[in-house]
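As the next step, I needed to go through one protein, both as residues and as discrete backbone shape codes, included below for the reader:
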Amino acid sequence: MAPALVHVVDDDPAMRDSVAFLLDTAGFEVRLYEAGAILLKRLAPPVSGCILTDIRMPGLDGLELFRRLRSAGHTLPVVMMTGHGDVPLAVEAMKLGACDFIEKPFGGEALLQALHSALERGGHNGTTDPSLQEFVRRLLTLSERERQVLDHLVAGGTSKEIGRMLDISPRTVEIYRAKVMAKTRAGNLQELVRWAVLAGFA
């Protein structure tokens, strides 16, 4: 079986190189692009694999690249790389149909897992996944205050900002956040946001 192909789009040469090395070592075939416009120019049918793109880039950013890929009829699964504080952008990308997002700096294992999952699902973002239905059931166990904290977390709020909005201390927000994580069994914020978006709660 031919190795899965990953198209990596990032304007940072060091980032492209390190991701390429990691993916190459893991047995992927890798193509590198320094800008979304170059990817759009070079993608010709039949296209295979998946796209790993940074969300913040000069010129054509990850969101706009995603929109143009879809309007050009490309249905490749897309995983977004985001920086700290880009959760609202990642949420928007997933609402548009991106498979997943991964927050920098990320570990190799987390990246490989996101890509394998995206390749398995193809261009679909997993709405029929049984674990998603399980997540929805767990969401229903949240108290009203826990739901409010979840909503603000998905919107990219920090503990300080959420505390201000809900008129509670940042420490109390942290306690509610821990309860939300425990009840939903999300491994990290990225997983929590991903499931909340897929479940239509964001």
